[in-house]
Specification:
Elements (H helix, E strand, L loop, with lengths): L12 E7 L13 E6 L16 E10 L4 H7 L5 E6 L2 E6 L13 H9 L10 H4 L1
Antiparallel strand pairs: 1-2, 1-3, 4-5
Length: 131
């Protein structure tokens, strides 16, 4: 019997995600195509609210590297970012490290936007926007 457990690990690959450019997290981006470095098998489910997931993995996420077929199926269409309202504040969860080794500069904006514009983000539409 062959040992295939290591084939189920994601040890470093690049994946394609789509960013909602109208969301505060997308400030400064010209294209909705974002490429994320991933080195783990943590997957976030999509929220019921579209406002909570401004960055989602695509249906064909692998851009470069290796991912097993079962893990690719788990990754497709999942959230790369999740926003949760907690009391008067919010939590912005980024499943991947946008500052990985300080050379993956294309995603540093995600991290900075989550800090600088966090007060503008909501997991659900604001009541003012609904009126």
């Amino acid at each position: 019997m062959r040992n295939t457990a290591s084939a189920q690990e994601i040890t470093g690959a690049i994946f394609h995600a789509r960013l909602d450019l109208t969301h505060p997290l997308g400030y400064g981006y010209d294209s909705p195509d974002v490429f994320l470095f991933r080195d783990h098998t943590v997957f976030m489910e999509r929220s019921a609210s579209p406002y909570a997931n401004p960055l989602m993995y695509t249906a064909r996420p692998l851009a470069s590297g290796f991912i097993s077929k079962p893990n690719e199926l788990k990754l497709r269409g999942t959230a790369a970012v999740d926003i949760a309202d907690v009391g008067a504040g919010r939590i912005v969860s980024l499943v991947d490290n946008p500052n990985f080794r300080a050379f993956w500069y294309g995603t540093n904006k995600l991290f900075l936007n989550s800090i600088f514009f966090g007060q503008l983000m909501r997991a659900t539409p604001s009541q003012a926007a609904e009126e």
